Amino acid sequence: MIYESTDSVDSLKHFYEGAIASAGQKIFSTTTIQGGVSYVFAKDESGGFGGSVNIYPSGDGKVAVQVTVAKT
After folding, report:
1. Going by C-beta distance under 8 Å and a sequence separation of 6 or more, which residues neighbour residue 41?
2. What pLDDT was estimated at residue 55?
3. 2-71, CATH topology level
């Protein structure tokens, strides 16, 4: 899923950090680049179920959010 928001990158980062933890997932990788952030998460180190969240400025004062969830 991809959407645009008028919320700030920091606000969305805090939201998704909490949502990932509330879903029983752990963030295993955090990458920051050009004002954005990317999280890779999974239930545990063996994978099984997890995904990624990418949050980045998209122009015109908006922030793009891409969420991918998968079962491996």
Report:
1. 20, 25, 26, 27, 28, 50, 51, 52, 53
2. 98
3. TATA-Binding Protein (3.30.310)
